[in-house]
Write a structure and sequence with these properties.
With 290 residues, this protein is mostly beta strands. Helix content is 9%, strand content 48%. It has one domain: Immunoglobulin-like.
Length: 290
């Protein structure tokens, strides 16, 4: 004969007796566990992944035009030589303020103290919304309305939504001739990845051109931190230990200060101001990649 399930005697806080089946109790416990798990999963799914920190892109002496890719929230800096004592300055002549918000324009003094020496001007923009924009800055005297600018820089800008993987990038005019990559240790991230791309103004080999340097702090506390700088490079010859060595001198602007590298085989070796290899306990060599 089939026996009914054993009953458990349960009393409430007033001492009144009740009963419950062990099967029903187990089912109730299972249902409660599933309900809690569902709530936790819903809460986890509803929490969006944090966006990476905004990138910083700095455009220097890169040539007459370039293509720039930004994420919403990224900062774009245009840093170019200017001699404001002549009345000339860099003015924004074309821009969609709904996509790129103009910021401060700053005059930076010349590196030397000579009277009339050229300094630099810095123009700031912040990517506000996704879309395409043509940003044009012109070197001109603001009161000469009908005169052609002495120089112009045109940036074809694409802004993508925030959080897009590897959003920030710069593609200058010219032909890519070499690309080098290296990695350094980092105190509060998993490593600092440095890449330098060199570009020639034409298809034939040149001893001058433009470069794009990207520094990425990998897995920093709030995500990858990306800084991009651009400028000009020039090929030079000779170091104290090797008169025939090939040197790439990188300059963000027209200042005499340069960042020097020796090209040796498939490597790019950083040099100090005296054109000697930088002394470091870490491997600072950048290696050429396809």
């Amino acid at each position: 004969m089939h026996k009914p399930p054993k009953k458990w005697i349960i009393r409430d806080k007033n001492g009144r007796a009740g009963s419950s089946s062990p099967h029903r109790t187990a089912l109730n416990s299972l249902a409660a566990s599933l309900f809690v798990a569902a709530l936790a999963a819903t809460a986890f799914a509803a929490t969006p992944a944090p966006n990476p920190p905004p990138a910083t892109v700095q455009i220097g002496e890169i040539g007459p035009s370039a293509a720039v890719r930004l994420g919403v929230g990224d900062t774009l800096t245009v840093l170019l030589p200017a001699n404001i004592t002549t009345g000339y300055g860099w003015q924004t002549t074309a821009n969609n303020d709904a996509l790129l918000i103009p910021g401060a324009r700053t005059n930076l003094p010349a590196q030397n103290k000579r009277v009339g020496a050229a300094g630099r001007q810095r123009l700031l923009f912040t990517a506000k919304a996704p879309g395409r924009d043509r940003l044009v800055v012109a070197y001109m005297r603001p009161w000469e309305k009908n005169a052609a600018p002495a120089r112009t820089l045109t940036l074809e800008v694409v802004v993508v939504p925030a959080g897009t993987h590897s959003a920030a990038a710069v593609d200058p005019e010219g032909t890519p001739i070499a690309h080098y990559v290296g990695k350094l240790p980092c105190a509060d991230c998993t490593g600092i990845r440095q890449t330098i791309g060199f570009y020639s103004p034409g298809s034939a080999p040149h001893t001058v051109g433009s470069y794009v340097e990207t520094t990425t702090y990998l897995n920093a506390p709030h995500g990858n931190v990306v800084n991009i700088t651009t400028g000009k490079w020039m090929e030079k010859r000779g170091t104290p230990s090797d008169p025939s060595a090939t040197i790439y001198a990188l300059s963000l602007d027209s200042s005499p200060r340069t960042q020097n590298y020796q090209v040796k085989g498939g490597s790019l070796i950083p040099l100090d101001a005296a054109l000697r290899p930088v002394q470091s306990p870490y491997d600072m060599t950048l290696r050429r990649v396809p």
